[in-house]
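Review form for a predicted model. The reviewer records the input and the model, then writes brief findings.
Reviewer: anonymous (R2)
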Amino acid sequence: EKEEIDEVRDLFLDAKSSALLLKQEDAKYMK
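Model under review:
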């Protein structure tokens, strides 16, 4: 059960960092 929680947390963090990277890319092109 604990492993599942870690897995979900990892997925969430991956999605979060991916979103941040996308935002940074957008900011670059908006200038």
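Findings: The mean pLDDT is 93.
Further findings: Helices lie at 2-30.
Recommendation: see findings above.
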